[in-house]
Amino acid sequence: MKIAVIADIHGNDLALEAVLADIAAQAIEEVVNLGDHLSGPLNAARTADILMARNFPSIRGNHDRWLVSMEPAHMGNSDSMAHAELQPHHLDWLRTLPATLVHRRELFLCHATPQDDLTYWLEDLTADGVVHMSGRQRIEGFAEGDRFPRHPLRPYPYSARCPACRWPVGHQSRQRRLSRL
Questions:
Q1: What angle in degrees, to the nearest 10, is found between the helix axes of 77-85 and 44-54?
Q2: What would the DSSP string read from start to end of the chain?
Q3: What is the pTM of this model?
Q4: How far apart are CA 29 and CA 27, in angstroms?
Q5: What is the spatial distance between Cα 47 and Cα 74, in angstroms, rounded to a whole number?
Q6: What is the pLDDT of residue 143?
């Protein structure tokens, strides 16, 4: 079974619709969403309506957390613009989203790292603001020991891996984002 992984929509309803159309064209029946759904100056309320109607297994990202935990006056521009557009039922939906989720007892979902939605998992950020790909040892280190939930049926830590390169699922979208920096 193929599962599509989406993330970092940031209120871009038109891009979300295009991605969902592509997923449907590929006959992928299952979608999971890794958060940061609505924050952005685009169309937060319509994006929320689309996602809520689809009812995908979803987790919250750092921007989702900020939308429901901060006062708008303390938010960044993208978050405060989205917050102003959202209705109470949209915010209530965000409040229900967990920080992490194990989907189908085998696919672990998190927004950044299992412990923190702000810590880069796949990239390192230098003191002067340069982003570069983390080394494999650091990336896989997040899946070792008590820092990563153990699969209930397996004695070893489990993480979803890209079949092409064996790196954690979601790395391609992060690489594309980095290439635009």
A1: 70
A2: --EEEE---TT-HHHHHHHHHHHHHTT--EEEE-S--S-SSS-HHHHHHHHHHHT--B---HHHHHHHHS-GGGS-HHHHHHHHH--HHHHHHHHH--SEEEETTTEEEESS-SS-TTS-SSEEE-TTS-EEEPPHHHHHHTTSGGGSPBPTT-SSB---B-TTT-SBTTHHHHHHHHHT-
A3: 0.73
A4: 6
A5: 23
A6: 65
Second CATH level (architecture) for the domain 3-179: 4-Layer Sandwich (3.60)
The domain ranges of the chain are 3-179
Residue whose pair of structure tokens reads 């699969």 in the numeric block? 151
**CA-CA distance, 108 to 98, in Å (whole number)?**
12
pLDDT tens per residue, range 142-157? 666 544 444 433 333 3
